[in-house]
Amino acid sequence: xxxxxxxxxxxAEAAALLAAEAAxxxxxxWMRGTSGNLSVVTGREPLRLAVTASGxxxxxxxxxxxxxxxxxxxxxxxxxxxxxxxxxxxxxxxTGAGAVVHVHTVASVxxxxxxxxxxxxxxxxxxxxxxxxxDGPAVVLPVIANSQDMRVLGDRLAAAxxxxxxxxxxxxxxxxxxxxxxxxxxxxxxxxxxxxxLALLEPPGPDGGR
Length: 210
Prior knowledge:
- Pathway: Amino-acid biosynthesis; L-methionine biosynthesis via salvage pathway; L-methionine from S-methyl-5-thio-alpha-D-ribose 1-phosphate: step 2/6.
- The chain is of the alpha+beta class.
- 32% of the residues lie in helices and 21% in strands.
- Helix 4 (150-160) links the parallel strand 8 (143-144) and strand 9 (167-170).
């Protein structure tokens, strides 16, 4: 990606792409108000991410509302990044991802309340959208407790994440999903949300757990 336009001098291609992705997710009702945030890696040495700015309506976000941050989530160029930029950077360092999506969906919050120990998924064709077999063993979508401290939240995510499952639900908050690039992160987000919506329609188990 080349450095260029965007009011904060974030790489132009990344800024335009994040604006388009934000509009898409907002149209689904997954980034209501100013909620949610997106990022894409623009450099690895040193780590740099383009991140959506804080306090911006994601349905109206433009390329000028994208901030370049470092590996700690601190602004390098531009305005004020999302308060969760540090967690995006942590996810990238943990997973090697090229893009991270954080959306506030009703299904993710509701399912975290219903299944606080983790959300079990099995026997569904849509699992293929995460690179998992439809007829393989059950997989668990982790659920972690929320925190306003991104270091604490990052530690919880690192401890809970499941191999091969590119997502984590934060209780009372929303969904984090990552991928090699923004397109893969978007597709995975849509797949995970579909799985969560289906799980929400199913009656809870007799013990209210998994």
